[in-house]
Amino acid sequence: MQSFLCRGQSLRFFLSFQTSTARKLQDPSLPAPARRYRCSPCLRKQAGLPSARAPVAPRSSRAPNYSHFKKDLLSQPEQLLQPVSVTEIRQYLRSKNISFHDGYSCLHTPSLFVERPRGSDPSDKENFSLFIDKTTGRFLCKATLLEGSWEDFQDGIELLQKEEGLTFLSPQTFASLLESDTDREDLEMDSLEVRRVWEKAVWFSDLEEEEAQLAKTMFNITRISNPTLKKFGVKYFKPTKSLVFPWFSSRDSFLKGLKLLSVQCDQQLLKYLETTFPKPASYYSLFGHHLMGKKDTEVVITSREVDSLALNQATGLPTIALPRGVSCLPPALLPYLEQFKRIILWLGDDLRSWEASKLFARKLNLKRCSLIRPGVKQPCPLDAFAGGFNLGKILKTAIPAAHKSIVSFRQLREEVFGELANVEQVAGVKWARFPELNKLLKGHRKGELTIFTGPTGSGKTTFISEYALDLCTQGINTLWGSFEINNVRLAKVMLTQFAMQRLEEQLGEYEVWADKFEDLPLYFMTFHGQQNIKLVVDVMHHAVYMYDIGHVVIDNLQFMMGQEQLSTDKLALQDYIVGTFRKFATENSCHVTLVIHPRKEEDDKELQTASIFGSAKASQEADNVLILQDRKLVTGPGKRYLQVAKNRFDGDVGIFPLEFNKASLTFSSPKGKSKLKKLKEDSTVQLKKPAVETSGKKS
Ligand SMILES: Nc1ncnc2c1ncn2[C@@H]1O[C@H](COP(=O)(O)OP(=O)(O)OP(=O)(O)O)[C@@H](O)[C@H]1O
């Protein structure tokens, strides 16, 4: 109890820019009735405990009009999370005499919200319906769909033990804590929309033969039978010519949400578009989960609903599709996968799917996971089915995800082949706004460390914000640690760059842009000012687990260095910090971009790799070194050059001009011919005259 309060008061964590409030309240987890409950403040009051969280301003006093945008940006102590280890969780349960079972990603315990039937065996695992996430401590009671944080759970236990004769906490106890009207209104609107679409959509078997064939051809599902579609509840929505995938509650088959898949023809290319109700940040459907029986112990997980349909029809095995494909596996879904002793991940036919399957297997527990490696003979399930492959045979080739630390080339050869055969994908995600950066760096890759430097006030934050936004709009889940400027200012810069216009003069368009921006997989740490590196890295770990973060931006390293004057200790500390980020990037397969101030240079000298503040360790550890050059380059105001001074991937280094647009706060390369100049690695850059256009060969 004592330790809980201390920990509770020292919480300090990050919040998401997205609809974190909505996510937390409606949250998530799979199936649930339209109403959600939150427990802790109520429990605390009833238990006579002081609030562990600072009071939260009523919603109305926070941001009445631009609610979605603003409310999630402000730091709300109620959303702070605290790290808890599985050992602590176990110790706590033992100290309270709560029996538990060690599951794959969760600990299973009897639910404190359910009355135990008389005469039932308290140690019978069948009655363990409450799941505690081993990494975060968050709990979900599958019987009532109540959920909450680790502190909420402890509060509940304290209350139960305090009140004599109380054997369980009824869900009604929490009724007074239903989410605010705004959230409820949102939910109700979603729910109406879901009903409207669902009722208007038709079964494939009820379509005219010709129309059904046409629709199936559009989605490449001609071989999927009507009975399979009906079994999974897939309908067709004629007004938008969309497939409709339902999200049913596994508890009571309540229709919780929908995903609509439509086709667009873009220059002869078919493009598939997804729309979800509720919106993506709150859409936690495991498609196909409602078909699982209690006794099912094996499942194949796919990234698309159509893959699940194909696999199930071809093999008869239980299949499930993830709500947001390869982009993330929200931990809120883990309790629903606890029943499976074996999970095969067959996520797709590209490198991104392969990377995602390795990451998801870590969350699901490597021991029970096997992976299907993409390859010519192993395309995605739907293509394999359409191409007449034997899907059962492909499943037999699944590789166990748990690997030893020492491997032979025999085990690596397929992986090496995959890299050789997919050169473009190995090179990473391309920037849409910085083609020159693609020419030099080839792309943005997971697991790398990029060091970014430039003179004070040269526009480092502004540039790195656009550089990260560009990747984020392409689906790279991004976490920002901005210690120098606060999140509101940073988000304002990013939103302006996103809209590519001065929104101050277009306030009428604000809501439209903010809505689109809110759907980006973008999260912000709430830290400001000096921070402890350990705390920052803890948050990064947590974010990777929760949101499958693929890119962390830290602006800037000096904010983890304390206030001391430059000393040997300080250099050692910087080396330690850089080493820590390096290790984090590698271990979590996550790209880290670290902004570092340069050391003081003579005014007439351009910055070089050696100008990075501190010892040589930073540039040695980095995979990429980027320098924003701004002195004596050209006469035009606002002109900057971006220099790639180190590129471990393929060694190409060089420099190209950036033109600053003050209205949109963007740095787009000057139009016309490429002004890229390739250089020898780490050479001193002579930039007193404008860069010369080259053919792209190394000079
Ligand atoms: N190329 C440019 N020309 C003119 N103004 C710019 C340019 N780039 C950025 N700015 C403006 O300069 C200001 C400072 O930019 P920013 O905060 O990005 O610099 P910084 O290098 O990160 O600063 P610091 O060294 O303090 O961290 C901002 O108001 C930004 O809009």
TrEMBL record:
GO terms for biological process: mitochondrial DNA replication. Its main location: mitochondrion. Its EC number is 5.6.2.3. The keyword rRNA-binding does not apply. Residues 423-674 form the SF4 helicase domain. GO terms for molecular function: 5'-3' DNA helicase activity; ATP binding; hydrolase activity; lipid binding; single-stranded DNA binding. It is an enzyme of class 5 (isomerase). Keywords: ATP-binding, DNA replication, Helicase, Hydrolase, Isomerase, Lipid-binding, Membrane, Mitochondrion, Mitochondrion inner membrane, Mitochondrion nucleoid, Nucleotide-binding, Transit peptide. It is a peripheral membrane protein. The keyword DNA repair does not apply. InterPro entries: DNA_helicase_DnaB-like_C (IPR007694), P-loop_NTPase (IPR027417), TOPRIM_DnaG/twinkle (IPR034154), Twinkle-like (IPR027032). It is found in: Mitochondrion inner membrane; Mitochondrion matrix, Mitochondrion nucleoid. It catalyses: ATP + H2O = ADP + phosphate + H(+). One of its GO terms (cellular component) is mitochondrial nucleoid. PROSITE patterns: SF4_HELICASE. PANTHER family: T7-LIKE MITOCHONDRIAL DNA HELICASE (PTHR12873), TWINKLE MTDNA HELICASE (PTHR12873:SF0). Mitochondrial helicase involved in mtDNA replication and repair. Might have a role in mtDNA repair. Has DNA strand separation activity needed to form a processive replication fork for leading strand synthesis which is catalyzed by the formation of a replisome complex with POLG and mtSDB. Preferentially unwinds DNA substrates with pre-existing 5'-and 3'- single-stranded tails but is also active on a 5'- flap substrate. Can dissociate the invading strand of immobile or mobile D-loop DNA structures irrespective of the single strand polarity of the third strand. This is Twinkle mtDNA helicase. It comes from Microcaecilia unicolor.
